[in-house]
User: What shape does this take?
Amino acid sequence: MTKRISEQEAAQRLLGADNILLLAHQYPDGDTLGSNFALYLALQALGKTVRVACEDVIPEKYDYMDVSASMPDFEPTFICALDVADAKLLGSGMQEAYGDRVDLCIDHHSTNTGYAAETCVDASCAACAMIILRVIRLLEVELTPAIAQCVYTGIATDTGCFKYANADALAHRMAADCMDLGIPYEMINRVNFDMKSRARIELERMALDNMEFYHNGRVALMVITNNMVATSGATENDLEGLPPIPRQIENVWVGITLRQKADGNYKISVRTGTHADAAAVCALLGGGGHNRAAGCAPSGTLDEAKAAILQAVEQAVPRITTG
Amino acid sequence: MTKRISEQEAAQRLLGADNILLLAHQYPDGDTLGSNFALYLALQALGKTVRVACEDVIPEKYDYMDVSASMPDFEPTFICALDVADAKLLGSGMQEAYGDRVDLCIDHHSTNTGYAAETCVDASCAACAMIILRVIRLLEVELTPAIAQCVYTGIATDTGCFKYANADALAHRMAADCMDLGIPYEMINRVNFDMKSRARIELERMALDNMEFYHNGRVALMVITNNMVATSGATENDLEGLPPIPRQIENVWVGITLRQKADGNYKISVRTGTHADAAAVCALLGGGGHNRAAGCAPSGTLDEAKAAILQAVEQAVPRITTG
Assistant: This one.
């Protein structure tokens, strides 16, 4: 059973620790990386020995956060996971190595499983990086442009560049505070939201060609197979940001993306608006997430995965089958 | 020759006026409409007789701003254009009726031609609506949710939902100030940035199929013909927001969109990043705009329009032809 602690207490734990290992979640995104590298830089400024670890290779587009900086090698005496709602999400290697000995987890997912000894969660924050910004202020470390651009990256990426429902006034103001430091936000936005390779465009076209609609167009379902990825020439970098696409279509309540994994099974992403709860849908298949964005990974063939998720939608959103 | 005046002076002029006609530019976008309807509501709150006019029908998606509210009919004694850089941009009908008797223009285009008797320009503002928010504060009108959502719409749409270079800290903070009033920003963002009809998706696919590249992929050129629009079933609402697409492709410095008009000629939109000045390119063909987003409308066939804009790019951005 984890102990819930405040941001002040989280800052105290970090101030008292050294040889700190920070952990990002697998399939790392801008928020887990921005949170990790912002806190990494802040703890470094305090003279601590610290490194960031992630199960997966970090996509090149995040190079601007200096994520390739060589990390010191040491035996950690304090382990802190950022934006990781469940020990499983560390990835199998990291979970095996550290999953049962995480000292502190700082997170913004209401579904956090409490796997860490102590947990600091604020589910009202659009991004984990917003909590990290407040923790860094509590650490009394000077906010540098290098730290600020990591925090900005977390806020911008988890809000879809300030487009989603979670992009509230606080998210805008914290982003503005970061921008006051003089960060290259134009480049950050272009890299994360406004740049597609030709392979990505080809992949999107194939996916759109095969989009399926159910329940009078209220459910849109898109499939990305390994074969489509290979044919388009898309790299891992090209595969981010696909899940929002089905719900961008007019009148769609639930947008579903099935992406084939290396083992042949499918990872399912669900996106919803005000009419449906994505976390409730995915919980029926052992997954979780936020109200508007969640995921799950039932094993099975494409047809089995499709049938499972469509049934979960009907069960969690009964209104979708009527009228 | 226009007289340049301050925001304080602009507010004074409005306070002293009545029977006020506010003018939006043709092909109205979120900023000209948000600016007009915000100021309309503020002047109404002051007990003034006021209406908004626009050459073109206002796209349905802006209905949430109550743009369909019936406007009073009266002979204007004060005419004020908002976000209109040139009298030509009022559209031919409005230009003929009012172009040479605009009393005040409030605008954020550095290229403003000074066609009004008095002009209040702040080109450092990402959106005209930001200037309008300050003017409304100077009018000492209470900021209501109805006004705030118009201002937010202007800021969000002119910054590409806070994605473009002009989305600076001030733009974020002014948006946050609007959000403090309790505006439906999720709906506004979805309507403006995250909703595509199936016809729009079909049109985008056709346009992507025929994308042309020049100068080693640094120039991407997209064409939207009347025939493509008809085949896709796209309506006027579906045609907004196409110009950013070509520059979203990796390594593209200059993204060009040629859209056929009803008369068969082409309207050209140019989008650039840090490597090229869109306004300089379009100025060579009698157009104008901002550094990163500009337009022009040379007459001629598709081949003539293409040749003209490609030559203008080579002339304005000589570096693009080398290395």
User: Anything to note?
Assistant: Chain B has two domains: 3-193, 198-321. The radius of gyration of chain B is 20 Å. The domain at 3-193 of chain B is CATH 3.90.1640.10 (inorganic pyrophosphatase (n-terminal core)).
